[in-house]
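Justification of resources, computational component.

The compute hours requested in this renewal are based largely on the per-chain cost of generating structure records like the one below. Each record pairs the submitted sequence with a full structure-token output. That output is archived, and it is also reused by downstream analysis tasks.
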Amino acid sequence: MSVAALVSATACDVPGAGGGSTAPPTSSALGSPIVPGTTVVASSPPASSVLATVPMSPGRSALAARLPSTAKVVALTIDVERDSVHVDTIVDTLDDRGVLASFGITGAVAQAYPEVVERIARRGHLVMSHSDTHRSFTGRSSGEQPLTRSARQADLCAADAALSALIGRSTMPYWRPPYGDVDASVLADVGAIGYSSTVLWTVDSLGWSGQRADAIVERVLGAAEPGAIILMHAGSHSHDGLALGRIIDGLRAEGYSFVTLDQGLPAPPVQLASCSASRRIRPQASAITSPSTVSARRT
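The structure output for this chain reads:
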């Protein structure tokens, strides 16, 4: 699903839509009637559509599917949802080319493959939450009932506990919802515990769908634009790792540079949240860092 616009309806909330162990839907947000008051994700508009964070209300997470920049800069984001296949290849490719990325990782992966998460963090990449077990918070993509407020918050707190134990800091304020499933109630629920930035994407590589490496490279290079957040996946179901090197080389040839989300996407301040406060874990910094300092973050 290539997210190129956000549609805010003007009329009561319904369940909305995150990346995961089941392939993301290709038109989930527009496949059913828009109900007033619901924020949905549009899959069909071109990548050139204007896309920015939705208006914030106090305590509500900001929704973003692109960086607020007109410069030729992009953010590579890699979701790791169910297994660690290709993660080493992806990290090696990023290392070889001196690029930092942002990884959305589930709590389940952190528990099953702790050494993988530790390696990602050691190399200086941003680690954000991708939920604990990759359940849809709204039920839109799974066909299940929406998770309750307490279940959503417990899920993110469990994921943060598993990830923070490995990376030494909270995953707040950034998270990516499973399947991209969000609505106004999700933004309110996650914002209340410190996840002030809900990250979607501008370009989906579609590697999760069985696309081969050549097709992935062509798709990403063709859809890239200034400020794009590019969604890729690690895991046995995705061929993105095989395409990543050529994507980086191709984007650089076109004059693009790379940032992590905390460098390119300002996040609203994290409120004193129940997850981080109870464990006294320091949230990841949300200040923008100059791309010239990227290499200094790698250890």
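Residues 226 and 255 are 10 Å apart (CA to CA). The first strand starts at residue 5 and ends at 8.
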